């Protein structure tokens, strides 16, 4: 892993400044063979403005972009600037206008250091590649993936590295429609280490079940959709509660935490209220 500087980590200390209040929605609303069959839709509208494209400059047809994140660009980027950039990238992805990139050039340029604009905690699902759905290049974003996109001590340490050591201004918790991990937890799937892993999703399921009527298994699309969103909100809250480092950076305004749900069918990321 490349560090913030060749001499090692240089933790970012929280600066005094206006506190940022994050308003999170915790809206709450079978079987192992269905865990990876996910095709439902999310239901929140996506905001596409203001949009910026710090690493996706205008280019002529056939021209490849070799632009990368630099320390100077990262230092100027406020958390909401980074979010706007991701929203713009998702809009390009949905429109089929992905930025043509010279990946070998980007790899060479970033070999000695990385200055990402965001760290995305997402699900393991092979159909939810953050770099693609946000139209980002090499060195643009950190990505941590685990089935069910929840945090644990290892993920917290990774998020602290990304923000406090590497200077990333934005944390994104990204769930997705019809999540198989959520379905498995709803059905009480038991299989080796998967059983204990799915236990992490119980709080979100409990919240969803408290607000969703009808079948309480994965056969109920409304329950699963509610649990997916509740799990994103729960993970955001857990990060702030369990990491003093990140909580301090959020309080100072140096870092923001946002949550979104990716729709497998449309490619759209719908953002939770902030």
Could you characterize the architecture of this molecule?
This protein is of the alpha/beta class. It has a single domain, classed as Carbonic anhydrase (Beta-carbonic Anhydrase, Chain A, 3-Layer(aba) Sandwich). Helix content is 36%, strand content 10%. It is built from 10 helices and 5 strands; from the N terminus they run αααβαβαβαααααββ. Strands 2-1-3-4-5 form a 5-stranded mixed β-sheet, sandwiched between helices. β4 and β5 form a beta hairpin. The chain is globular. Mean pLDDT is 84; it is low at 1-55. One of its GO terms (molecular function) is zinc ion binding. It is an enzyme of class 4 (lyase). Residues 13-22 have a biased composition (Polar residues). Its EC number is 4.2.1.1. Its cofactor is Zn(2+).
Proportion of β residues?
5-15%
Separate helix tally: 10
**Mean of residue pLDDT values:** 84
How much helix is in the residues? 25-40%
Q: Give the total of beta strands.
A: 5
CATH class: Alpha Beta
Global Rg: 19 Å
Biggest beta sheet attributes: 5 strands, mixed
Cofactor: Zn(2+)
Protein name: Carbonic anhydrase
Region (Disordered): 1-22
Enzyme class: lyase
Short description:
With 274 residues, this protein is an alpha/beta fold. The chain has helices spanning 71-76, 79-95, 103-109, 130-133, 153-165, 180-186, 194-199, 202-209, 221-242, 244-252, and strands at 118-122, 141-145, 170-176, 256-262, 269-271. Helices cover 36% and strands 10% of the residues.
């Amino acid at each position: 892993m490349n560090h913030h500087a060749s001499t090692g980590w240089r933790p970012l200390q929280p600066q005094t400044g206006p506190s940022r209040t994050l308003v999170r929605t915790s809206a709450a609303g079978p079987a192992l063979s269905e865990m990876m069959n996910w095709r439902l839709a999310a239901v929140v509208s996506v905001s596409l403005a203001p949009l910026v494209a710090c690493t996706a400059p205008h280019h002529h047809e056939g021209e490849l972009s070799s632009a990368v994140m630099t320390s100077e660009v990262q230092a100027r980027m406020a958390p909401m600037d980074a979010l706007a950039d991701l929203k713009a990238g998702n809009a390009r992805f949905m429109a089929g206008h992905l930025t043509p990139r010279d990946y070998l050039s980007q790899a060479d340029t970033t070999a000695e250091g990385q200055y990402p604009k965001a760290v995305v905690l997402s699900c393991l699902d092979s159909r939810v590649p953050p770099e693609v759905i946000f139209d980002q290049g090499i060195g643009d974003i950190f990505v941590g993936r685990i089935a069910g996109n929840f945090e644990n001590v290892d993920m917290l340490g990774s998020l602290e590295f990304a923000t406090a050591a590497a200077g990333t201004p934005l944390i994104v918790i990204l769930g997705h429609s019809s999540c198989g991990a959520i379905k498995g937890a709803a059905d009480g799937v038991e299989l080796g280490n998967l059983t204990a892993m799915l236990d992490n999703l119980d709080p979100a399921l409990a919240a969803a079940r408290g607000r969703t009527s009808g079948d309480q298994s994965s056969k109920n699309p409304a329950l699963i959709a509610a649990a997916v969103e509740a799990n994103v909100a729960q993970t955001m809250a857990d990060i702030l509660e369990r990491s003093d480092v990140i909580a301090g950076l959020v309080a100072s305004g140096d870092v923001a935490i946002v949550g979104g749900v990716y729709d497998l069918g449309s490619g759209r990321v719908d953002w939770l209220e902030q």
